[in-house]
Amino acid sequence: MASPLADRLRPRVLEQVVGQQHLLGENGALVRIVQSGVIPNMIFYGPSGVGKTTVARIIAESAGKKLHKLNGTTASLADIRAVMGDLDTLSGYGGVVLYLDEIQYLNKKQQQSLLEYIEDGRITLIASTTENPYFYIYNAILSRATVFEFKTVPESEIERAAARGFSVLSEELGYGIQLEEGVLPHLAAACGGDVRKALNTVELLTLSADKQEDGSRFVPLSRAKELSQRSAMRYDRDGDEHYDILSAFQKSMRGSDPDAAIHYLARLMEAGDLISACRRLMVCACEDVGLAYPQIIPIVKAACDIAMQVGLPEARLPLADAVILVATSPKSNTAHNAINEAMADLQAGRSGPIPRSLQNKHFDGADASNPGQHYLYPHDFPGRWVAQQYLPDALAGRVYYHPADNKNERAAAEYWQKVRSAAGG
């Protein structure tokens, strides 16, 4: 059976790789490394389908050393030891290159087993990963390797790769393939920067193309939309893309950009991730709008409750209302800052006994120099306020809350200043 089109079109030299010009361009770092003839330990990090595996294979095969290939999803400790065992054979004389795909799936013990051999240069490691290596790869491995970040491939590059795919299939199958205008641009935009995904879709479109009277095949734009309608979604609930979307979602609301916030909400809705969307919405309402519009907190909570109650697709409606409301509301993080400062004091050991006047009413010990609780009940005083110390002695006078300059907090600050001044506080 023929291999997939993406595999048949896999580049054999660096010049054929689509995208990654920051690494593979005329003055790219990887090009210069290969030209030097000395291959260091390297880790390629980036989304799937952007050339990590291809580039790693090309470099490994050009090293002039024995090449071993392992995949982190299936490799065992015995497989790694077998690579090490090859070092003592004639074929392993001078060292070997270990190409390790999806290294993040190796556990700590498996990764540690490589250290001695990487350290003395007998094994040159070229690894690839779709996850942030600084979170998923053992620090000792990272300290002995250089991380290169691969990026999503530009649409213009993917469009050219897709056009080449149709051309190759036309030659292989022996008939012409006609594309309706807009097929290639749509395909390039819909694949989310993933060349492999684009070529897989090219193959599907060719197989499902409409046969013409002259024997050629015709690919309508509607078919391209049908087969690639969700392919632009990069979303893994345990991966970097998940947290990148959530980060962008909250930062867009915090930055008062309703259009960007709605865009990222749409991504979460397409992925069916109601829980994450609701959680970030409620956090943002409390953290970023906060006391500037405190009524927003129960409003957003109600919208999230409705969303969870009705489920998708209708859940998008209350959440869209809430997202736009949060994004366009005045902002204040004074409560956020106040609680963070208070917790920082506690963690630094700045605390102390609760003042006697605030303790639960009980008898003083025999050694009390001034027996009695001495609590002043604010409702018994003008303005329902009286000056008394509430913080522990070690923190007396400490100010955590600093009102922001918005309508709600300004009004509250002015009111309490008036009450305190009237009471002589």
Task: Describe the model.
The chain has helices at 5-8, 21-24, 29-36, 52-61, 77-85, 108-112, 115-119, 133-136, 139-142, 155-173, 183-190, 195-207, 221-227, 240-254, 258-270, 274-289, 296-310, 316-328, 334-347, 407-422; strands spanning 42-45, 66-71, 96-101, 123-129, 146-149, 177-179, 210-211, 217-219. It has 425 residues and is an alpha/beta fold. β7 and β8 (217-219) form a beta hairpin. α14 (240-254) runs parallel beside α16 (274-289) and α17 runs antiparallel to α18. It is flat. The termini are far apart.
Summarize the structure.
With 425 residues, the chain is an alpha/beta fold.
Task: Annotate the secondary structure layout.
Elements: H1 5-8, H2 21-24, H3 29-36, E1 42-45, H4 52-61, E2 66-71, H5 77-85, E3 96-101, H6 108-112, H7 115-119, E4 123-129, H8 133-136, H9 139-142, E5 146-149, H10 155-173, E6 177-179, H11 183-190, H12 195-207, E7 210-211, E8 217-219, H13 221-227, H14 240-254, H15 258-270, H16 274-289, H17 296-310, H18 316-328, H19 334-347, H20 407-422
Parallel strand pairs: 1-4, 1-5, 2-3, 3-4, 6-8
Antiparallel strand pairs: 7-8
Helix pairs in contact: 10-11, 10-12, 14-15, 14-16, 15-18, 16-17, 16-18, 17-18
